[in-house]
Specification:
alpha/beta, 5 strands, globular
Length: 205
Amino acid sequence: MKKRYLIWFLLFGLSGYLPLQAVAETKILFLGDSITAGFGIDKEKAYPTLVDDALKEKGLKDILVINAGISGSTTASAISRLKWYSRIQPDILVLALGGNDGLRGVSVQSMEDNLEKTIQYALDKQMKVILAGMQIPPNYGETYTADFRNVFSRLAKRYPVTFMPFLLKDVGGNPSLNLPDGIHPTPEGHRLIAKNIMPYILENL
């Protein structure tokens, strides 16, 4: 018990919420962008929080879910962000980045390199990785769109990760499940994302 309080004290000096890790047996880190952050809705309605709620309903209460979604994030910041969060020793990493790269027409090779470095770092730190694939509209042509989509499946074949082919399955492109911008899910959209990702989470617990 004293050891746990010591860990709590040390981490409190680093961040206001990191001390929670001291009493959690399993830590799940959602590293994402505005979709993960819950842009345009209350954060407690974002899919990471809904996953947390669903886990608790199943009696899995000794789990800390960390929503590390930041609006506007691209894969370029993924490795540095993960290194910062590695101090709390996440057990599971949900890597849900790439959408902003695609919307900005970032080099597919650059995106793949960024994701690969992040995955490799996570695996080196003994994290289980759930790689969430993304898809984009054909704004930059069919070739770019296909190359973008294939990055995720290629990485999933290259590394021992759990692969969710499309984070926005049944949500992307559905006006009734997205805000007026057509990009960010509504609360109902987030509920469907949480439902779809739960099997991948449970597989890794």
